[in-house]
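#dry-run=false #mode=assembly
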Amino acid sequence: MQSDPLSATFAALADPTRRAILARLCLGETSVTELAEPFDISLPAVTKHLKVLQRAGLITQGRQAQWRPCKLEAKPLQDVADWVEQYRRFWEARLDRLEAYLLELQAKDGKET
Amino acid sequence: MQSDPLSATFAALADPTRRAILARLCLGETSVTELAEPFDISLPAVTKHLKVLQRAGLITQGRQAQWRPCKLEAKPLQDVADWVEQYRRFWEARLDRLEAYLLELQAKDGKET
DNA sequence: TGCTTAGTTAACTGATTGGTAAACTAAGGC
DNA sequence: GCCTTAGTTTACCAATCAGTTAACTAAGCA
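#status=ok
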């Protein structure tokens, strides 16, 4: 994994298990065991996924007795949104061209009928 | 790398070289050699990066004589934007709480002075 | 003190990654 | 036919990843 924050974030998101964990955390803080429940992988594997998410800054872990509740952190997601936003004008341009093409087709169609 | 499209896209984006390639392609189609120019890695390494981007659907490669011009494809980026958008309400809620807190501080400040 | 619950750390494994150098393909031009 | 340019494929390497089992820590409770 690269050391720059955005690469760490993308790498963390490049795994369905980790994205599912984030989706669960969107509903609120949870214990590690509860997070692990839907997946049929071992608890140490979940701990590892949480480490990856933590290093990317996507979650933080607190302490309550023997529980280490996980919490979703929004900042890196916002950074991803900002990054991808740069490309919005690109795909919107593409849609514009498609639309122009469809209008052109329609115009031609109008002439023919 | 996972096989699901979103994971493949995130994995492809989790590398600064590949993100730089995409940024360059935003300006228009380019040959592989020109894409490789800013990086001090070998051409085969660039070919590999392009393969990763291609498998994620982020670029397509055409043919013109001995050149294989690369073109940015918007769809997977749009998928990333859609995915991260789910979390917008989350970080906006966070900002709302921050704002509420700042207003509270301000109110207290008003009482004290 | 000893047991249970919650979770992490350590050591290992097989698969994947990002890079290399060397060999190959494929099109153009002389 | 042969050289050059553009790029890919192959074979290899070291590092990292995602998972495992087994051992450990740390808090609560009887």
